[in-house]
Specification:
Elements lengths: L3 E5 L2 E5 L5 E3 L4 E2 H19 L5 E4 L14 E3 L12 E6 L2 E6 L4 H9 L2 E6 L15 E8 L5 H17 L5 E4 L5 E6 L6 H18 L4 E2 L11 E4 L9 E2 L14 E2 L2 H4 L9 H6 L16 H5 L25 E8 L3 E9 L2 E7 L11 E5 L12 E3 L7 E17 L2 E7 L8 E10 L6 E6 L36 E4 L2 H11 L4 E4 L3 E7 L4 E4 L11 H4 L10 E9 L8 H4 L8 H10 L2 E11 L2 E2 L5 H11 L7 E2 L7 H10 L4 E5 L10 E9 L3 E11 L8 E10 L2 E8 L5 H11 L9 E2 L3 H4 L3 E2 L5 E5 L2 E2 L5 E2 L2 E5 L13
Parallel strand pairs: 13-14, 26-35, 31-33, 38-39
Antiparallel strand pairs: 1-2, 3-4, 5-6, 5-9, 7-8, 9-15, 10-12, 10-14, 11-12, 11-16, 17-18, 17-22, 18-19, 19-20, 20-25, 21-22, 22-23, 23-24, 24-25, 27-34, 28-29, 28-30, 30-31, 31-32, 34-35, 36-37, 36-40, 36-41, 37-38, 41-44, 42-43
């Protein structure tokens, strides 16, 4: 493909040879590499921002497994690099070298263009003045020697996690994309690189001392066969580690991929390819760089749940959307009336407060004061910011649309804005010129240009005047949105209560998350049980007309995701929870849609109805939802506790809620007039091994290795290490000791679990309580319930 010049976020870049294959074994081209780095940027950039980048380049491609290509390390930025590319010198014995700083998408695209497949960074950053700071993270590189692999690295990672947690650090794992696992933990920046390196070395030695059969901390390669080497030296200030989300120059395009601890428990754990990483949502490593990102100031000024504004969990920008960048102008009746101009840029809304709004003529400029960057979800925000919160007052959308950018410099922005067809702005070419200061609170002039972008005279616009009634309908106070809660109960107690109430009223307990909905006649806003804003997280419920009528209402329900059998699935719903970036939300909403199951109403038909009986509120709810969209469900009420409980168990539901039909709705109270009866998931298992105990369990059983019979044999289902009393442990030891054998009875037991196992003949059956099966068939959060002497191993089947 011929060379082409493109503009990315206002930066000009020359791209060439996009069809060139850089990974021959998969056919992956330079164009696909550039696409990956562009799309992964919101997750990658927070982990490299401010850190000098050393690159590993493969101009001729990575080659194949049998004939690998020759890379070279690049420290200094190439002479032909764009002038706008940030850089900072670092002294070397041969002189200072200008290292690139990767701060935005254009910088990533440039590095991909020159085949910088691997990005390596230190654990420290430069500050805005170019001063080298102390490290803000510690890293342990778990490198498997010959004869061991990821499973053993995962086991060592769990040992390291326990020690790090004990000293107040919360580590997160990254499968390196090469051989092993990296563990990162956030630091407060008070220790030098030498001090952090010394701590890491002592951690490695401590783990080696406890597990010398599997762990080595010495640099000697001769000591590594059959062991996991804990490389602590990458905390040295002069060393680097592969950046999270960087591609690797392997035969296939694997990635240094942040993972969850649950994933490390999967016996099928493996390195991820770049397309698999793009399909994932969220950043498991976000907590490692918690204060980094352009939205840091925005989040610091706001508390989720106390303001209706969107408050992201992390200060990271979003990926750029398709098409022209967007803008919004909001009329803000705060302590002083002003208009907020926000332009989409690098995944955030760069913002200015304009006291007099967009100037209607070319002869008079408006003062504009730069404020903190805002999240992209602010594009359509309107509402009442409560008194006592930052920016308190009423905000409405004055106009919104897209803009065409001509120039974006630190001191000047020129763009043509196109508002809504019926909006007050029209199409206008504007300039923002900085006159004093820099960053937040810097002063600018907002100028209406005399000509449009084609040089034609530009007409005047209407004078900007405040709206006569800027206030939207007053939202229900946050204190009034606390839901009524149920009390835990048993089937017998729930039946007795229903008899006292004179009528059995039973609803299914849906395995989702509670949602309080505020309906304004056109759109729904959602808050969680603890008051956190969830509106942006579930656009299929909040960005469309749900058909709940023209009058405002406040409703109570459960947000659920359904599995292939139509049953609510909390593991599926977890894919949707805690997402903050609009692109990730949209992607996951298409893959994992949700429904809103309604079971109560607090306000409707122009009145507060919490004082009415449940029977009366139910009638109002059914009228309210009579013509609702398909995503809104009002589940049936049952009149038989026993039958409903049996049905919920038969269909794999979480349980039931037995309610007093004459009870009012008590906001924020846990009431014994709502009784929840839950099923606990249980599974019969066959015992096939023991892991010896350590610490206070030394000399007895540490955990049991269990399995479930299949056509292929006894399929390994994980470890059970909790739920045992001293008498239970003593009895199990007495029963299992005579069954000891040298033969592993399982299919699929990972090497890390088998390493110190004592095998037993699979003759005994037990029962465990657990949360769920992982995709690999491992029991999560398994807890021992007891032996089942009435069962033979052949009777055990997986309970799905």
């Amino acid at each position: 493909m011929a060379e082409q010049t493109v503009r990315i976020d206002g930066r000009r870049l020359r791209l060439s040879n996009l069809d060139k294959v850089l990974y021959p074994e998969t056919g992956t081209t330079k164009g696909e590499v550039i696409d990956y780095y562009s799309r992964i940027a919101p997750r990658l950039l927070p982990h490299v921002r401010g850190r000098p980048v050393t690159r590993k380049r493969w101009p001729d491609g990575v080659g194949t497994a049998t004939e690998p290509g020759e890379p070279f390390f690049a420290k200094a930025l190439e002479p032909g690099a764009p002038a706008w590319m940030p850089r900072h010198p670092i002294d070397h014995s041969s002189g200072a070298k200008d290292y690139p700083l990767v701060e935005n998408v254009p910088a990533l695209v440039y590095l991909a263009q020159v085949a910088s497949l691997e990005l390596h960074v230190p654990q420290w950053r430069f500050d805005a003045a170019g001063t080298r700071l102390n490290p803000d993270r510690i890293v342990l590189d778990l490198d498997p020697g010959p004869g061991v692999g990821l499973a053993e690295c995962a086991e060592v990672a769990r040992w390291a996690r326990a020690i790090l947690v004990d000293i107040g650090l919360a580590p997160s794992p990254v499968t390196s994309g090469s051989k092993g696992i990296h563990l990162y933990a956030h630091l407060d920046g008070r220790q030098t690189s030498d001090a952090v390196s010394a701590v890491a070395k002592e951690l490695a030695r401590a783990i080696e001392a406890d597990h010398s059969d599997l762990v080595v901390s010495q640099m000697s390669k001769a000591a590594r066969p059959g062991k996991v080497f804990i490389d602590w030296s990458q905390n040295n200030g002069s060393k680097t580690t592969i950046a999270p989300y960087s591609l690797r120059g392997r035969a296939e395009p694997t990635v240094a991929a942040p993972r969850t601890w649950e994933e490390l428990d999967d016996p099928g754990l493996r390195h991820l390819l770049f397309h698999e990483v793009l399909e994932r949502t969220g950043d498991p490593l976000a907590a490692i760089d918690p204060v980094d990102g352009p939205l840091r100031a925005y989040i610091a000024k706001r508390t989720a749940g106390r303001t209706p504004e969107p408050v992201p969990d992390a200060p990271h920008a979003e990926a750029a959307g398709d098409g022209l960048p967007r803008f919004v102008i909001q009329e803000h009746h705060a302590s002083r009336l002003h208009w907020d101009l926000r332009l989409e840029r690098d995944g955030v809304l760069v913002s200015w407060a304009v006291p007099k709004g967009v100037p209607p003529t070319t002869g008079k400029n408006s003062l504009a004061v730069m404020t903190e960057d805002h999240p992209m979800q602010y594009l359509d925000f309107a509402g009442e910011i409560p008194r006592g919160q930052y920016g308190a007052g009423t905000m409405t959308v004055w106009d919104t649309g897209t803009y065409e950018l001509e120039k974006w410099r630190d001191d000047e922005v020129i763009a043509t804005l196109t508002g809504r067809p019926d909006g007050p702005l029209g199409r206008v070419r504007l300039a923002l010129i900085r006159t004093e200061g820099s960053g937040e609170k810097s002063q600018w002039l907002l100028h209406r240009m005399k000509t449009d972008a084609e040089g034609r005279p530009q007409g005047e616009g209407p004078a900007v005047v405040p709206r006569a009634d800027p206030a939207p309908p007053a939202p229900t106070a946050a204190a009034d949105l606390r839901p009524m809660l149920a009390t835990s109960s048993t089937p017998g107690l729930a039946r007795a209560a229903a008899e006292r109430w004179g009528r059995e009223w039973v609803e299914m307990k849906w395995d989702g998350i509670r949602g309080i909905g505020m309906w304004d006649g056109q759109r729904l806003r959602l808050r969680s049980r603890n008051g956190n804003e969830m509106t942006a997280t579930y656009p299929e419920l909040t960005s469309v007309d749900l058909g709940l009528g023209a009058a405002p209402a406040v409703i109570d329900g459960e947000i659920v995701a359904l599995d292939a059998q139509g049953r609510p699935s909390f593991p599926l719903l977890q894919r949707r929870m805690n997402l903050a970036q609009a692109r990730e939300i949209a992607h996951e909403a298409a893959r994992t849609p949700v429904h809103l199951y309604l079971f109560d109403v607090l306000e409707a038909e122009g009145r507060v109805v919490t004082g009415l009986t449940l029977v009366e509120r139910r009638e109002i709810l059914e009228r309210l939802a009579a013509d609702a969209a398909a995503v809104v469900v009002v589940p049936p009420v049952f009149d038989d506790v026993e039958a409903a409980l049996a049905a919920s168990g038969r269909f794999g539901l979480e349980g039931i809620v037995v309610k007093d039909p004459g009870a009012p709705y008590r906001r924020g109270e846990r009431s014994d007039r709502w009784l929840k009866v839950k099923h606990s998931r249980t599974q019969e298992v066959v015992i096939g091994g023991i892991r010896p105990g350590k610490g206070n369990r030394a000399g007895t059983i540490g955990s049991l290795l269990v399995g479930v019979p299949t056509a292929d044999g006894l399929q390994y289902a994980g470890r059970v290490g909790s739920g045992f009393g001293e008498q239970t442990l003593a009895r199990l030891s007495a029963l299992l000791e005579p069954l000891r054998t040298d033969a592993d009875p399982f299919v699929g037991v990972p090497a890390a679990d088998a390493r110190d196992a004592l095998w037993v003949r699979p003759d005994l059956v037990g029962e465990v309580e657990f949360a769920e099966f992982t995709p690999g068939g491992i029991l999560r959060q398994a807890r021992w319930r007891g032996l089942r002497p009435d069962k033979d191993p052949a009777d055990v089947v997986r309970e799905d």
